[in-house]
């Protein structure tokens, strides 16, 4: 990864700011919801205390019967179809599988009972039969303002209900009812007199099978004694009290310990903040912040029972709250349920519910502010980091480019730019500049070394040569003559070395002081070729020149010197029976001079070093034939080619029968 990409990746750490802000919004939303819950619980507690001061309208603390409010009296026919839904969740008795189900209803202050008995073995009888006979029957234990009453209910077949007292005599009150037999047992539907106000009700079902075994079910204590339970129901008289005590815009429901609704008042009002939020933003907050909210309770507005978790908590003695969405999902509903206590006993549960979209509005304000600040901060941080990365990358690229251009093709050290910046990049550039200054000094010393050595060695060589000449005229023993000859050969080789070094120095000075001119390269090579023909004899010499003139701006003298070095190199490696080929061709904005010759192939490892100084591949016979060769020839050809803005290369011919040296030349600019 580039430095810019790394810094851009690092800039993503700024995203921690909106993340932390989002966590803050979540915590703020939690605190707001907690505050709303506490406020609604306080209202519910105050309302529960107001109801608790009227304990007569509340059900008892123990188990009891709930009589559903019926809009009209059902027909006494043993069918449950006209009980208006009250029979859906009846009281069930019997073990291990309930076989007695009881439903109570009240219409026009008259108590109705619906009893369903599952009895596969029929042992029917009549209510007025003696009590010591065993048969299927029902017993009722009623208590009211006029005292207690025990009744026996039994029919031998479908028809009007037979009712008798415990002694088999007609009862003191008139009870209407119907006994209906069906495949799974029988159903009894009855109605008590309107004037008989039932306070407690006890019920027993006795079933006798064909083998004489008896089973009992109903409100029986541990020893099988029939017990009465208090009867309560919907208290319409509490609705004005609830409506007066309930805060506006809220719905209040009073339920008994079995979650049956005893009274309700009010309605959930419209939230004035609903139109302050766009639908998509409201949906976004619910999806992200209110994921723990529950769907709206499935019971209708006039439900007989409220089976909610918060109501169950209140019945157990602990207040509870819950957040829900209304069916359309457009607003939030908050409900709180608290126990209604009388003398320390839970007698009922109070449910208070309201619309509460203020939390969404406050959350939206906080989130909008956070989003705006985070966007500005992130954009600013991203921009600053991007600018810093761009500037730092640009500085490093400049440093790289300067390092790549510190040495030119001729090995000279160019000026390295130095920055005044006091950071690490500035220190690095100054270190590079200092290092290159030392390299430049050392390079200049090496470049001038050959000239200094050639100048300093001339005098000692002259002295040694003169001394050897004097020794030749002296009377030397015969055995000393070979040593003098070897010394003279060494002096000659050292002289050749000094002259070659002087020539290289002279050519370098000539290159630095050259004055380019326009000339015809084709005519120049044609003239030189005539002189090379006799020099290369008896080798076959081939010349391939273009038909038209080939103009070039440069130094014709230096081009001839470079060509001389190539021809001398070819003469040294080409055998007498071989061939040499000189060719010229236009190439782009310049020209291409190629000199090929028959001979040995170039080693692969040496092809890139042939044009370096002091590099020679000549064997000893080749050196003896052409004199001393120190490897400066091709190096001089390279310097002249680079002066003409080109380069020199060498390659083996594809046929493998020789090599080819090529000079690529271009015009020297006039400003040189």
Automatic annotation (TrEMBL):
What Gene3D superfamilies does the record point to?
A: 1.10.287.130, 6.10.340.10, Histidine kinase-like ATPase, C-terminal domain
What's the protein called, per UniProt?
histidine kinase
Q: Which SUPFAM superfamilies match?
A: ATPase domain of HSP90 chaperone/DNA topoisomerase II/histidine kinase, Homodimeric domain of signal transducing histidine kinase
Which residue ranges does UniProt annotate as crossing the membrane? 366-389
* Record-annotated Histidine kinase domain positions: 452-669
Subcellular localization, per the record? Answer: Membrane
What reaction(s) does this enzyme catalyze?
ATP + protein L-histidine = ADP + protein N-phospho-L-histidine
How is this protein annotated for GO cellular component?
A: membrane
Q: PANTHER family in the record, alphabetically? A: SENSOR HISTIDINE KINASE TRCS, SENSOR HISTIDINE KINASE YKOH
């Amino acid at each position: 990864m580039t430095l810019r990409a790394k810094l851009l990746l690092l800039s993503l750490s700024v995203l921690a700011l909106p993340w932390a802000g989002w966590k803050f919004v979540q915590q703020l939303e939690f605190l707001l919801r907690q505050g709303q819950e506490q406020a609604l619980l306080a209202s519910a507690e105050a309302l529960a205390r107001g109801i608790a001061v009227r304990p007569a309208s509340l059900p008892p603390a123990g188990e009891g019967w709930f009589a559903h409010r019926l809009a009209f009296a059902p027909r006494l026919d043993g069918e449950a179809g006209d009980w208006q839904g009250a029979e859906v969740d009846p009281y069930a008795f019997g073990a291990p599988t309930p076989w007695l189900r009881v439903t109570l209803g009240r219409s026009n202050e008259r108590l109705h009972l619906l009893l369903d008995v599952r009895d596969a073995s029929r042992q029917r009888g009549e209510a007025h039969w003696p009590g010591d006979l065993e048969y299927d029957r029902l017993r009722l234990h009623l208590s009211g303002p006029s005292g207690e009453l025990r009744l026996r209910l039994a029919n031998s077949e479908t028809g009007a209900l037979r009712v008798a007292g415990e002694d088999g005599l007609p009862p003191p009150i008139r009870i209407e009812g119907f006994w209906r037999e069906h495949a799974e047992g029988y159903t009894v539907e009855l109605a008590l007199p309107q004037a008989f106000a039932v306070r407690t009700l006890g019920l027993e079902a006795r079933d006798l099978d064909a083998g004489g075994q008896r089973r009992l079910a109903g409100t029986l204590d541990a020893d099988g004694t029939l017990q009465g339970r208090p009867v309560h129901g919907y208290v319409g008289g509490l609705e004005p009290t609830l409506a007066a005590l309930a805060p506006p815009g809220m719905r209040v429901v009073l339920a008994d310990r079995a979650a049956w609704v005893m009274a309700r008042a009010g309605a959930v009002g419209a939230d004035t903040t609903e139109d302050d939020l766009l639908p998509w933003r409201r949906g976004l907050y619910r999806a992200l912040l209110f994921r723990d909210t529950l769907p709206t309770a499935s019971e209708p507005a006039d439900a007989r029972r409220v089976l909610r978790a918060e109501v169950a908590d209140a019945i157990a003695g602990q207040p509870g709250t819950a957040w829900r969405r209304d069916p359309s999902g457009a607003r939030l509903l908050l409900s709180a349920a608290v126990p209604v206590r009388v003398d320390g006993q839970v007698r009922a549960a109070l449910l208070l519910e309201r619309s509460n979209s203020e939390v969404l509005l406050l959350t939206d304000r906080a989130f909008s502010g956070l989003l705006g600040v985070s966007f500005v901060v992130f954009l600013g941080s991203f921009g600053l980091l991007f600018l810093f990365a761009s500037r730092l990358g640009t500085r490093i690229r400049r440093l790289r480019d300067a390092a790549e251009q510190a040495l030119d093709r001729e090995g000279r050290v160019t000026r390295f730019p130095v920055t005044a910046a006091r950071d690490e990049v500035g220190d690095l550039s100054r270190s590079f500049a200092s290092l290159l200054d030392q390299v430049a000094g050392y390079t200049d010393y090496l470049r001038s070394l050959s000239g200094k050595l050639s100048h300093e060695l001339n005098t000692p060589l002259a002295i040694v040569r003169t001394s050897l000449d004097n020794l030749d005229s002296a009377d030397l023993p015969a055995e000393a003559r070979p040593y003098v000859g070897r010394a003279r050969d060494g002096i000659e080789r050292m002289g050749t070395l000094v002259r070659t070094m002087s020539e290289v120095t002279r050519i370098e000075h000539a290159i630095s002081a050259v004055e380019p001119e326009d000339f015809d390269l084709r005519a120049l090579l044609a003239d030189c070729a005539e002189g090379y023909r006799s020099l290369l004899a008896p080798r076959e010499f081939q010349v391939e020149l273009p038909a038209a003139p080939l103009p070039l701006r440069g130094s014709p003298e230096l081009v001839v010197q470079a060509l001389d070095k190539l021809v001398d190199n070819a003469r040294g490696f080409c055998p007498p029976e071989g061939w040499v080929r000189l060719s010229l061709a236009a190439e782009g904005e310049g020209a291409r001079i190629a000199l090929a010759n028959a001979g040995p192939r170039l080693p692969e490892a040496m092809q890139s070093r042939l044009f370096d100084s002091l590099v020679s591949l000549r064997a000893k016979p080749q050196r003896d034939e052409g004199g001393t060769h120190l490897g400066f020839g091709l190096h001089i050809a390279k310097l002249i080619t680079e002066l003409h803005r080109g380069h020199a290369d060498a390659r083996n011919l594809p046929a493998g029968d020789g090599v080819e040296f090529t000079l690529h030349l271009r015009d020297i600019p006039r400003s040189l």
